[in-house]
Amino acid sequence: MSREFPIGLTPPDWLVRNLQPQQAPLNRPAIARAAVAMALPLAIGLATGHTAYGALASMGALSGVIGDTADAYRMRILNIAIPQFFGAVGVTLGAAVYGHGWYAVATLTGIALVSGMISTIGAVASVSGLLLLLNSVIGAGLPLPGAWWLAPLLMSGGGLLVLLLALLAWPLRSGIPERSAVAKTYRTVADLLATCGDDPTAAYDAARQAVTQSLNQSYDLVLARRARHHGRSPELTRLLAQLNAITPVVEAAPAVHQSGQPLPPQIRETVRHLAQAVETGYTGPIGLALPAPTGETTRAIDHALRHAAEVVTAPDLDPRGIDDRLGRPAALRIRAARAARNVLLSSGSWRYGLRLAVCIGLAQILVSTVPVARSYWVALTITFVLKPDFGSVFSRALLRALGTVAGLVIAAAVLSAVPRGWWDVLVLLLLAPLIPALTPRGYGYQTMAITPVILLLSDVLNHQGTALLLPRLVDSLIGCGIALVAGYLLWPESWHTRVGDRLAEAVADTATYVESAFGRSDAGTVAVGAGAGAGAEVDPAARARMRRRLYRDLSVIRTEFQRALTEPPPTGRLAAGWLPLVVAVERIVDATTAARVRVKHGAPSPSPAEVTQVALQLRELSKGVRESEVLVEVRTDLTGPAESVLEPLRQEVAAARAIASPH
User: CA–CA distance from 280 to each of 183, 191, 217, 238, 619 (Å)?
Assistant: First the structure.
């Protein structure tokens, strides 16, 4: 029997979203690596009589554990090794100004500006910027033992220990993460085909989003590795060809769903059979028990599956004929000089860098003028909360405070009941695995796991026991308060969701995609309308890349939408209003792809006038979305031949224009 809360006691939706744990599988190897990498340095320090050195190395291992998230081995090197270099620079600069008052304030403020700006480049740069600032704050706030070079060496060594443990299985498992990712993509496509033609549409939409996410991950993994073996690795050539081969099956899915006729179960079982062949590397003959096609959509599926089977089982593939559907991943195609130029010229990089610098500067001024125990924790809290790619600043500040309180409860039990010495190693062996286990659940859970570990290592260095608890709570709350006021409330952009602007760009790109989808011939190039520039042409491979980028962009928009929902009113409430239009644009792309598939397999092509009309309506919709703060219902006249292949697309465009317009 359900129990309803009184209206006054019902928690707000944004708070429920913030506290709800995310679902994620346990990464058992990462859990084991965390336990060994963090406990081993402390054990060596105790055994050699240099406990403080062991604690510093364990602190460095913590940064490696946090960055140990990549699936592919080569990406693990980038995610862990490069940030360790920046961390070593940070702790060196911080230690150089330890105890120098206003010099420390100015230095940390400048480092915060640089850290914030480079954090906007990409994922690896973001972690590098984070570690640069974190370690500089630690160096400036703690008296580090030994010579000036020893602390950077120990902390970087701890992080590299995590990398070493992560690479132990590389000789035996090289290529397995990439193959597994591609096989998983095939299985998500099988799940998508199982929902085609069935009601409710929500099941199909969820399956299509899962396919988009899986394709994004697989392309990123394969292309990131292929960037270092371009055209020379038969295995990577095969994986990229297999990803490209499943694309026509994904493109045919909207047409099948639009037809309202479920596919025979043999079709999705065939896709799962191909997934198994991908995962095992099988290249022998494969039997296809496919039913005879009965129409345009089933012909499209039959043709796409037979092509995929040929690619999956082909013994040799020509690397020169493989098209990188998404190009290189963004994190790899930006070279150092270009990245530096983009950062220096980007207003977004300067805005974020200034926000972070203002907050760190205020924190350092505060702790320099007002006695605050363990004052470096204030700046550490700000650094973790004010990250541009880690979600909402508001929600992270809230979760940081709640996670710290929960972590302090655990720390209080550990510091009051566990004797110092070898018992610390045992406790660390038990607490460290909680970090990779709870991090995927959400930021608050990660904070709860990290807090007792940090306090345990701090106690090893200064032997203050439970006296560390209250200063940690006070400093964390001060840091959260500074981040909320100086890094959130005082910046107008914090109060405006970016969903609308990004959605407007996606709608404009969709108009170009509609024009490129219907041209002269499948055999040659495809004429593109005015949206792509007069006389421009798009070949089939470029059209496929355009469609993939559209779905990727829409996936990013959904992620931004989910982040915005964790904001308090009015931001979260305004963001919620955009969801119907996000779904509508996704269906427009689906309808365009479905129409293209039908034309390719026998349906009459639409007239140029129809295509121009639909594209014009989409561009007007894009302009309306860009100029609107809220969604206003309107009606539109978008007519054409009822028997046209574009009729479903016209209906989706009309539905989208009925949701949004300028007011």
Answer: 9, 20, 19, 13, 46
